[in-house]
Design brief:
The complex is a heterotrimer of chains A (299), B (317) and C (325). Chain B is mostly helical. In chain B, 76% of the residues lie in helices and 0% in strands. A 7-stranded mixed beta sheet of chain C has the order 6-7-8-3-9-10-11, sandwiched between helices. The longest helix of chain C has 18 residues. The chains are: A mainly alpha (299), B mainly alpha (317), C alpha/beta (325). At the B-C interface, helix 9 and helix 10 of B face helix 2 and helix 4 of C.
Chain lengths: 299, 317, 325
């Protein structure tokens, strides 16, 4: 056993060295990307707003009804009030927390799921496990997204997390495909073959040597999934399949479809602009991350 | 002959996919889906009445039998009658699918064509300000929700608060003029959203191809840049482009149409599907899901045959 | 071999900006090519020989690369800094290039004939109907059997040697005065290498062209070139006519290169000489001679300043070394 460990050390060390240079280079490159840094900064501001909501520092009165129908913008109601007299400013700020909650839960879980199934399929590529995972991806890809979400929402009988589960069950697929491809590539590299040749157990190879080398893909995919989740939430809430309790930009926009035809745009504008700001910033951040982490990317 | 054999082989290979899609969706939408018993029954029903309705709906049969029935229906394309309206499902779909196609097609074609043009322009001026501007706008396009675009365009182009050029909602088409009026705003919204994602994708495909050796050879033989892009490189890029376009067709018919049709109150297959989900209209759901799966298998077949047409290295064997 | 030079490169500097800083891939390189002459550019990979060839063609990928200084005159006309549209008129018509990778140099989705006819129509003003027999004739000339059938095949249906012949045929199609051949035979197997090389030399004489042959293979240089320059780390180490270069190599690097060619039948078996050490990183070049670290004749002076080429324009052999052999 000690012999094994000693002989594995050099390849493992090279793998780690490669990783460290990749990450430090990426960090250096990312810091020089102006659009990416701006995006990152804006995302941080949104995050602080979300934290404030979670800790109860602000936007606590988002559900209270006072103010009267469609109050104009004023010192008391910064963005006016909605159809039934709720404060649009508080509601739109509260929705930031909802967006982060949906985005984080969906991004983290679907990335984990994608990483697990993708590396499994990649490592056993060409074998039965791989066939099953590929088949599952093909099947879920072939069911129209909103149909699948609606079906899951109804199957779970209005469970508050039906939307999250539905998104995770489709968003993991892209991540999984990418990870599978990368794992197939990695597993043919010398250091993995060497570990194989001297009898390192397969799960050790997967989790010690292969999975860590797919981290950069996972990070980028997580940011892309985060954005996709926030955007999907809006449409699902509009269709009545989204956020169940609480408030979200999707619910606000859905609410506003009644108001805009009557010429009242505050609700719509508040939710749209705040959402655009976060999604745009996240997209810029995600782009810079991709540029920094993918050395082969041509731009 | 080769093509026919290939087609048959591909269709057979598509069977696991069709089985998978139908099984998953059957499980979710039919087995765990909403129960219609109490909607069809009067107040204070007797147990006999309940049992009768459930038998009528087929709820009393075991799961395997119900799934097998479904596959038989799919094989014969006979899905019976809608639970909620009593209309024959084939008639219902025959009425609504053309509406969705008429609604979606212009936006789909324009969205891809314009995006491809923008991508070519961006790639041509790679790293220049034209490229940066197009790519910047595409990120903006990607960052706006489809729903927001639809609402905003409706306000701007249709409502009395904006330009008021087009009907606000509905689908009352009796002439080409009507068609144009009703399809204009949905098309603009579709194109706007499609441009963001498509332009970015097409540009990255083209730019990647531009780094290949054969492009350098062409340049060394004095091929002008525009000709290089439009003649040489574009054909090389066709495989990812075809894949994206063909595979988005099955999804766009249902998902793409769903939001527009629901928002604008247009009686297309997307709206019908959405209503079927919320009301648990199983015959309609079964038909839509089954047909989508078939469409995917067909898309796979079509792309493979198209690959053969654009790339001589692809063989149908 | 005399007369006015066809191509004159003077103090050429090519730089690439990378994330770590600016890299000088070619550093003050000067040489000339006379009509009908073959000039070899020799060196290890990364020494700047390919970049020099690309610079002449105006094909330096930009960004990140650029010609930072120096001049390239072709028939008295300055090419460095020429607008892309004018450069395009020279490429292919006056100067043609044959690339290293025959497997990828042709566009996979068009037939050989399609790509050749394209070039012929552009340069000779032929119609599609006239261009086809001309293309077949050229393919036959470069030694492709059954050219009238091969012309309708796709590149992937041809072997590496055949593809390289196709590229050569394309290069000949416009009667260029100069061909830049970048490792034209490196990617081919050994027997094919000899055939293709022989064909190139034969065609060069027939078409009365000058040629720049970029290669790492001194054997190829000995067989085909009139003169050669040996490059190391972007600089010219030695510039000489073939006979003195091989008979009396003067730069320690050239000596090392010649020593690493296996020779058969020279008495007892000898160990193959190996140049010790590695090529320095172009980002962190020493102030003195770039070969000093690997050189057996190294002295204090070598680390102080870069040696320049000795002798005058007319000498048969010039070397950039303080202590040449």
């Amino acid at each position: 056993m000690s012999v094994n460990a000693a002989s594995v050390a050099p390849p493992a060390a090279t793998a780690r060295g490669r990783r460290q240079t990749l990450w430090s280079k990426a960090a250096w490159k990312f810091r020089r990307d102006r659009a990416g840094m701006i995006g990152f900064g804006i995302v941080l501001v949104y995050l602080v707003a979300a934290l404030g909501v979670w800790f109860g520092w602000w936007a606590t009165g988002w559900a209270e009804v006072h103010g009267g129908k469609w109050s104009p913008v004023s010192g008391e109601y910064w963005f006016g009030t909605n159809l039934i007299g709720q404060d649009i400013y508080q509601r739109s700020i509260y929705s930031i927390a909802t967006a982060f909650e949906v985005g984080l839960v969906v991004a983290v879980l679907s990335t984990l799921l994608g990483a697990a199934l993708g590396s499994l399929a990649g490592f056993f590529s060409g074998r039965f496990t791989d066939e099953v995972v590929l088949w599952l991806m093909g099947v879920l890809d072939s069911i129209p997204f909103y149909l699948l979400v609606a079906a899951i929402a109804f199957a779970l009988e209005g469970n508050a997390y039906a939307m999250h589960i539905a998104m995770i069950s489709t968003f993991w697929i892209t991540t999984s495909r990418l990870v599978r491809g990368e794992v197939i590539k990695l597993k043919n590299l010398e250091f993995v073959e060497a570990a194989h040749a001297i009898g390192v157990p397969e799960y050790t190879i997967i989790f010690r040597h292969i999975v860590p080398n797919t981290l950069h893909i996972l990070l980028v995919q997580a940011t892309i999934t985060f954005v996709a989740a926030i955007k999907s939430e809006v449409i699902l809430s509009f269709l009545g399949l989204g956020v169940k309790d609480g408030m979200s930009w999707g619910l606000m926009i859905s609410e506003s479809t009644l108001e805009v035809l009557a010429g009242f745009f505050n609700n719509f504008l508040a939710a749209s602009v705040l959402m655009f700001g976060l999604v745009m910033a996240f997209n810029m951040f995600s782009d810079a991350l991709q540029d920094a982490l993918d050395p082969r990317k041509v731009s | 002959m080769e093509l026919l054999q290939y087609t048959i082989r591909k269709l057979l290979a598509g069977i696991p996919l069709i089985l998978g899609v139908t099984f998953v969706s059957f499980l979710l939408m039919v087995y765990f889906g909403p129960d219609q018993t109490y909607q069809l029954i009067g107040k204070n029903p007797t147990p006999e009445q309940i049992a009768e309705v459930r038998a009528q709906l087929g709820y009393d049969k075991p799961f395997v039998v119900r799934y097998a029935d479904y596959l038989r229906e799919l094989g014969t394309l006979d899905f019976g009658f809608s639970d909620s309206t009593g209309e024959k499902v084939s008639v219902l779909l025959g009425r609504t699918i053309p509406v969705s196609l008429a609604l979606i097609t212009p936006g789909f074609i324009l969205g891809n064509l314009v995006a491809l043009m923008l991508a070519l322009i961006a790639a041509h001026h790679r790293s220049g300000w034209v490229d940066k501007m197009i790519m910047g706008l595409s990120v903006v396009g990607m960052s706006i929700s489809f729903l927001i675009v639809v609402i905003a365009f409706q306000i701007v182009f249709s409502s009395s608060y904006g330009l008021g050029l087009f009907p606000v909602r509905g689908w009352n088409v009796h002439s080409p003029g009507d068609y144009f009026a009703y399809v204009a705003v949905p098309t603009m919204a579709t194109v706007f959203v499609a441009l963001g994602y498509n332009t970015r994708f097409y540009r990255s495909v083209i730019v990647e191809e531009l780094t290949r050796d054969h492009v350098r050879t062409a340049r060394a033989f004095g091929v002008p840049p525009a000709r290089l892009l439009y003649r040489n490189v574009l054909k090389n890029c066709m495989i990812p482009i075809i894949t994206r376009i063909v595979f988005s067709i099955p999804l766009i018919v249902i998902s793409g149409a769903l939001i527009i049709e629901t928002y604008f109150g247009i009686p297309g297959v997307g709206k019908v599907t959405f209503e079927a989900i919320t009301s648990g209209d199983q015959p309609v759901l079964k038909a839509v899901v089954g047909l989508t799966a078939l469409l995917f298998v067909l898309a796979q077949l079509v792309t493979d045959i198209l690959y053969r047409a654009v790339d001589p290295r692809v063989s149908l064997k | 071999m005399s007369g006015e030079p066809l191509l004159r490169v003077t103090d050429l500097v090519v730089e690439f900006s990378t994330e770590q800083g600016v890299v000088r891939a070619v550093d003050r390189v000067s040489f000339e090519v006379r009509p009908n002459e073959t000039l070899g550019i020799v060196g290890e990979s990364g020494c700047g020989k390919t970049v020099t060839g690309l610079a002449i063609m105006g094909l330096i990928p930009s960004p990140p690369g650029r010609i930072a200084a120096g001049s390239i005159t072709f028939q008295g006309r300055e090419l460095a800094g020429l607008p892309e549209s004018e450069m395009r008129a020279i490429r292919g018509r006056d100067i043609a290039m044959v690339f290293q990778e025959p497997m990828t140099a042709l566009n996979p989705v068009f037939t050989v004939g399609n790509q050749m006819i394209d070039v012929l129509r552009r340069y000779r003003g032929l119609t599609r109907r006239q261009a086809r027999p001309a293309a077949i004739e050229l393919l036959a000339k470069v030694g492709i059997p059954a050219a009238d059938q091969r012309i309708d095949e796709y590149p992937h249906q041809l072997s590496g040697g055949m593809r390289q012949r196709v590229v050569i045929a394309m290069a000949l199609s416009c009667d260029p005065k100069l061909i830049v051949a970048d490792e034209p035979t490196t990617a081919l197997d050994v027997t094919t290498q000899a055939q293709v090389l022989e064909q190139i030399v034969k065609l060069q004489q027939e078409f009365q062209m000058a040629m720049i042959l970029v290669t790492h293979d001194l054997g190829v240089v000995a067989e085909t070139c009139h003169r050669a320059i040996v490059m190391y780390c972007g600089r010219i180490a030695e510039k000489a006519e073939i006979e003195p270069l091989f008979a009396h190599p003067r730069h320690p690097y050239t000596v090392g290169l010649l020593g690493s060619i296996p020779r058969v039948g020279e008495g007892e078996k000898q160990d193959l000489a190996v140049i010790p050490g590695i090529v320095p990183d172009l980002l962190h070049l020493p102030p003195g001679c770039r070969f000093a670290d690997r050189c057996s004749s190294r002295q204090a002076r070598c680390d102080e300043a870069l040696p320049e080429l000795d002798g005058g324009e007319d000498s048969r052999s010039r070397v950039a070394c303080y202590f040449p052999y």
